[in-house]
Specification:
By secondary structure, the protein is of the alpha/beta class. 24% of the residues lie in helices and 21% in strands.
């Protein structure tokens, strides 16, 4: 199954049923009067959380959803049937935005949680509603109102306890494959991980937590470089970040500089995510000699880390201590109230990048039009 974390859909609530124009016609009853009933209300569109779903790929193939329209009114003062409501299932952790106005509409985080996004149209009135002392045989009715129509943008944010950060090839996928049953693709070249991966770390039958591995970040990621910036939003719901630092990078780069690069990109993307609790995890320590290992405490102090760990995922060195510390931290941690602010910052960043893309597109089109206009005065002479 392909992982898709953004999709656009169109939802349309049902139209209300029309009111009925009818008069009572019964033997021996002269001038029976109006008896046209009201129409039925149109069906509404709800989005409902489903924990069994983990991708938005289905919406790429079915982007349109329409609720049932209300039935028309009938004679004998009978109301038309109400349109059936439509419930669209989405993964838990889905954020909803209006595509046209970029208005934030809400989140669906829990199984069975519902959110009304398009209300059904009001029913029309039958002619019995317009009977009065001066108008005993009204022929006036009203049609049903159209239902709400909305173009929505869905953004899926994975729900995990711990998020992994780092440059490409820092050892994130190797770590999650060792401590959980997840099997991400692992190779010795950058950007092996193209989509987020989730792994469940189970320490005992009643103690477990979820780790999210996102594609590695590179310098300039907040400006659109690389792949990781597309998935930073998945870290907004995590309670702890693990910043993995490769102590033996193949390109010979400085680990301190690499650490600062990730910190800068996080701050540019979202202040809320940058301020989350973040632990430094030095990876690939099996490649260091004893003297280099003794200098790791000074390196952590230079980076301003309150807490750091040294591991070798391949050799399974230090991974048990790290997982135990995470479990203890999550048990003691109280849920913070920063999720709304982080969601807002994430949305503002996405909106800003979208506007920049549109501006670039319009600028390119304008330049093309100007080039075409410059040619209208040019005459071509053919000489033998």
């Amino acid at each position: 199954m392909n992982f898709v974390d953004e999709a656009s859909i169109k939802i349309e609530a049902g139209k209300g049923g029309n009111g009925c124009l009818s008069f009572r016609r019964e033997k021996y009853i002269e001038r029976g009067g109006p008896d046209g009933g009201d129409g039925g209300r149109g069906g509404s569109v709800y989005l409902v959380g489903d924990a069994a779903l983990n991708t938005l790929v289905d919406f790429r193939f079915q982007p349109n959803y329409r609720a049932q329209k209300g039935g028309g009114g009938k004679g004998n003062d009978r109301t038309g049937p109400k349109g059936e409501d439509l419930y669209v299932r989405v993964p838990c952790g889905t954020s909803l935005f209006d595509e046209e106005t970029d208005e934030y509409l809400g989140d669906i985080n829990d199984q069975g949680e519902t959110l009304l996004l398009a209300a059904g149209g009001q029913h029309g009135l039958g002619n019995v509603r317009f009977k009065s002392s001066t108008n005993r045989a009204p022929r006036q009715t009203t049609p049903g109102e159209p239902g709400e129509v909305r173009q929505l943008r869905l953004e899926l944010k994975l729900i995990a306890d711990v998020g992994l950060l780092g440059l490409p090839n820092a050892g994130k996928s190797t770590l999650i494959s060792v401590v959980s049953a997840a099997k991400p693709k692992i190779a010795d070249y950058p950007f092996t991980t193209l989509v987020p991966n989730l792994g469940v770390v189970r320490l005992s039958h009643d103690q477990s937590f979820v780790i999210a591995d996102i594609p590695g970040l590179v310098e300039g990621a907040a400006g659109g470089a690389g792949l990781g910036v597309q998935f930073l939003k998945h870290l907004s719901r995590t309670r702890l970040l693990l910043h993995l630092i490769d102590l033996a990078p193949v390109d010979g780069s400085d680990p301190v500089t690499n650490c600062r690069t990730i910190e800068d990109e996080l701050a540019r993307y979202s202040e809320g995510i940058a301020n989350k609790t973040r632990w430094l995890v030095f990876t690939k320590v099996d490649l260091l000699d004893s003297e280099a290992r003794q200098g790791l405490a000074g390196l952590a102090k230079q980076l301003g880390a309150d807490r750091y760990f040294t591991i070798s995922a391949v050799a399974k060195e230090g991974t048990d201590d790290l997982m135990g510390a995470i479990a203890e931290f999550l048990t003691q941690l109280e849920q913070t109230a920063d999720d709304e602010r982080i969601s807002r910052e994430t949305h503002e960043y996405s909106l800003r990048k979208r506007q920049e893309r549109w501006q670039k597109r319009y600028s390119a089109e304008d330049e093309t039009d100007e080039d075409d206009d410059d040619d209208h005065d040019v005459s071509v002479h053919y000489e033998p």
